[in-house]
Amino acid sequence: MTAVAEALETSRVESHLHPEGSYDVGDHVVPTGREEIWRFTPLKRLRGLHADAELGSGATTYDWNTPDGVRVEVVDGTEARALRGISGLVPNTRFGARVLADVPTSLLVDVPADAEVAEPVIVQVHGTDAADTEAGHVALRFGRHSRATVVLNHTGSAALAQVVEVLVGDGAQVTVVSIQDWADDAVHLTHTQALVGRDASYKHAAISFGGDVVRMDANVSYAGPGGSAELLGLYFADAGQHIEHRLFADHDAPRTKSHVSYKGALQGQGAHTVWVGNVLIRKVAEGIETFEENRNLVLTDGCQADSIPNLEIETGEIEGAGHASATGRFDDNQLFYLRSRGIEEAEARRLVVHGFFNDLIRKVGVPAIEERLIQTVEAELAKNVTPAADPIAGPNVGGARP
């Protein structure tokens, strides 16, 4: 455990939003599904990653580019152990504790202080066999006043338990994009923990399209006042897919900010998405600002979208705090307007979905990724699905649970 992790661990107070953690695997029982943080996750489909599956290596490969001045390397031994906990992470899940305790190597992306990296660092994580359960630890370290973007691109077939730690130095401006574009049989259980320095800016974009089951936890806390975090998410679930995103913004320093915006679409029988947004404002966090929102668009019958925002406030001395959540079908007025002007239904639906996602896509801030997302949404809409409703022909009742 690093000095940062030790200091944060001793300063934590118990919160119903976020169970206390431990580095000791033995302190974490195998979840049954009755626990609050596991009640939505289909445990039987996780291939034991949440429990005691063997964590092998070799079926998942890593490739990357290396812009000038940036170090990207797989490290082991003392250096790997020193990276465990750089984000202040104290695992609150068994799989997280197992990754930190049992995985002998770490993929390190190290951006030095004052560096301005114009080219994104792109790490390709590719799975070759979903029958092999594996685990990985990724450490992203950004020095003081640095500027950089890192993209983690997940593809192929895999069963992967993963911990990603992000350390954002004072005054740094950082973007981390995690793309889950797995094959249909993949299982991805991942936790991202970020520690944002004084007056630093951190943007995290979680983009999930592929996989059988994808569950991503994205947490952020602050190492000093003035830090800001923008947590973005975009997901599209098809028939049988389970895509789950859990957020925790822990305001443990004054004058910090967080803004959470996630949007998702669902189509096909059995498509299931889960979004849980937790924000904790501690007593010391005076003058903070926070807002979180989740919007879900249901395209066909047979889908379910669960959306749960939570806000816990321990001080009244804040600038502002709020949350919003909505799950619904197409805006009938928008469809009617387009259809009444001679636009065919399929094209009208395409335009509405692109409009739903477009503002969020433009916030990612990486042009190549933004263009790819537009194309991916287009490909999803091209799949053979039955329309949920036709505002001209009449309604079709059914669909999501708000």
Automatic annotation (TrEMBL):
Range of residues in the leader sequence: none
Record-linked InterPro entries: Fe-S_cluster_assembly_SufBD, SUF_FeS_clus_asmbl_SufBD_core, SUF_FeS_clus_asmbl_SufBD_sf, SUF_FeS_clus_asmbl_SufD
Annotated ranges, domain SUF system FeS cluster assembly SufBD core: 132-356
Family: Belongs to the iron-sulfur cluster assembly SufBD family.
UniProt-recorded name of the protein: Fe-S cluster assembly protein SufD
Organism: Nocardioides bigeumensis
Source lineage: Bacteria, Bacillati, Actinomycetota, Actinomycetes, Propionibacteriales
